[in-house]
Specification:
Layout lengths: L8 H5 L4 E7 L10 E7 L16 E6 L6 H6 L3 E6 L4 E5 L5 H36 L9 E4 L4 E4 L5 E3 H5 L8
Parallel strand pairs: 1-6
Antiparallel strand pairs: 1-2, 3-4, 4-5, 6-7, 7-8
């Protein structure tokens, strides 16, 4: 796995996703037969954006606690139910005697549950798009072929060609 970052990295590499084929004649091959290898490339933007969690989207409800804990728990409205309105996820906390402490803990729990939901949706979306980008990984499923023996690189989407030496120097943009 390789990571590329910097200004313009997404713009430069977004079209590299797909199957690539590399053909070569190894020095040990006496009859000149070509060996063909394939590799797949998936290109994604950096997914480190923070998750927006606006507290105005949270509805708080106070309730009287239940269960063991004496009369204080069963007579005061210290339990808190927090609901994230856009997703419908809820958190109920009644552990502490203080309503403020329970509210803070409910908000922390709710934030982690919403973050987990959003992360799992992103993960699912990334997996689907990765599978779409790399295809089956077979030789016929290719966007570019590097032919060492002929000294050329062919982009099958555009039909453009360049030399292997230029390609290895990073001049893949001559193919576009």
């Amino acid at each position: 796995m390789c990571f590329v970052s910097g200004k313009g990295a997404w713009k430069d590499f977004k079209d590299e996703a797909g199957g690539h084929r590399w053909q070569r004649v190894p020095p040990t091959e006496t009859k000149g037969r070509r060996h063909s290898s394939t590799f797949t490339v998936a290109v994604f933007r950096d997914g480190s954006e923070s998750i927006d969690f606006d507290e105005s989207d949270v509805k708080f409800e106070a309730a009287i606690g239940h269960g063991p804990g004496g009369q204080h728990k069963q007579k005061t409205a210290s339990a808190i139910k927090a609901t994230h309105v856009p997703t419908g996820i809820t958190a109920y906390v009644q552990n502490e005697r203080s309503q403020h402490t329970n509210k803070r803990k409910a908000l922390e729990t709710l934030r982690s549950r919403v973050t987990e939901l959003i992360e799992s949706e992103k993960h699912s979306e990334v997996n689907n798009s990765r599978q779409e980008m790399i295809g089956s990984g077979e030789r016929s499923d290719k966007i570019r072929t590097v032919q060492e023996q002929n000294g050329r690189v062919v982009d099958h989407r555009t039909g453009k060609k360049c030399s292997v030496s230029a390609y290895l120097k990073g001049d893949i943009w001559k193919l576009r």
